[in-house]
Design brief:
By secondary structure, this protein is α/β, with parallel strands linked by helices. It has a single domain, classed as P-loop containing nucleotide triphosphate hydrolases (Rossmann fold, 3-Layer(aba) Sandwich). Helix content is about 35%, strand content about 25%. The strands form three sheets. A six-stranded mixed β-sheet has the order 6-7-8-3-9-10, sandwiched between helices. It has a four-stranded antiparallel β-sheet with strand order 2-1-4-5. Strands 11-12 form a two-stranded antiparallel sheet. It is globular. The N and C termini lie far apart (about 40 Å).
């Protein structure tokens, strides 16, 4: 896992507004490119447009034509099953309403690979077992998802996305509600799958230090526009954090990796 085809994602001058034309855009002329097998972190203060960007990239919000390209094709030219075989998402506030078990929820990730009315086979269940193991949720497999804690549910929804076996994974705040140990475990897992399996990762992150540690490329949004982009060390600087977040911080290199570390003054 993953056996999905490595996927490339691009956006060209992407803009979006909620409501009529008189409303200010939430995103304004945002362009990005995430190479197949890359790890892109999307950063920015609350309200900067991170969630809207990921919803557009996943197709849940409808972009304009010829603004988002998945493997070189206009995202709007794919049907939903085609998208789902290439791209999996983990939303920020995913909350299953029905009383499914964890195992059933994760098994739903296999749906894009099944024909109409086709039942899951042994290979599908093996994918589910692997996803549960990777996310440390095996012990939850018989639990009702509506009874899980926020952190447990985050890991279960990630397991579902991994079971989907797509080449591209979009995650909105994947470490929200997780304790420190599981925050590290999840991001380290994503990094390992990127390096060893060719998984392409695009993640909206709140924590600058996590982005610096795990991402190859960073985009920093500010009020719907790109304020800075590049390698983590190029974007996460004292001056940029002050300009975008209004925070006085120290930024020092990690003694082992050289990645920037943000420390409050």
């Amino acid at each position: 896992m993953t056996n999905g085809v490595r996927a490339k994602l691009e956006a060209v001058s992407l803009s979006y507004r909620y409501g009529g034309e008189e409303r200010a855009p939430v995103l304004d002329s945002v362009s990005l490119s995430c190479a197949a097998g890359g790890f892109l972190a999307v950063l920015g203060p609350n309200g900067s447009g991170k969630t809207t960007l990921l919803r557009l990239l996943s197709g849940w919000l409808k972009p304009g034509r010829n603004t988002i390209f998945l493997d070189g094709r206009d995202l709007l030219s794919y049907n939903r099953p085609e998208v789902a075989r290439r791209l999996a998402t983990v939303a920020q506030n995913a909350q299953p309403e029905a009383a499914f078990t964890v195992e059933e929820i994760v098994l739903m990730g296999r749906a894009p690979h099944l024909a109409f009315l086709e039942r899951e086979g042994s290979a599908d269940r093996a994918r589910v077992d692997e996803a549960l193991a990777l996310t440390d949720t095996v012990h939850l497999r018989r639990r009702d998802v509506t009874a899980l804690s926020g952190g447990e549910l985050r890991r279960v929804m990630l397991a579902q996305a991994l079971a989907q076996d797509a080449g591209l994974l979009l995650l909105d705040e994947p470490t929200a509600h997780l304790d420190l140990s599981h925050q590290h475990d999840i991001l380290a897992l994503l990094k390992k799958m990127q390096r060893e399996k060719g998984l392409t990762v695009v993640a909206a992150l709140h924590d600058l230090n996590s982005a610096a540690r795990y991402a190859d490329h960073v985009i920093l949004l500010d009020r719907g526009r790109i304020a800075a982009e590049g390698a983590p060390a190029e974007v996460i600087t004292r001056e940029t954090v002050k300009r975008v977040y209004g925070a006085d911080v120290l930024v020092i290199p990690h003694p082992a990796t050289g990645a920037p570390i943000v420390i409050e003054e």
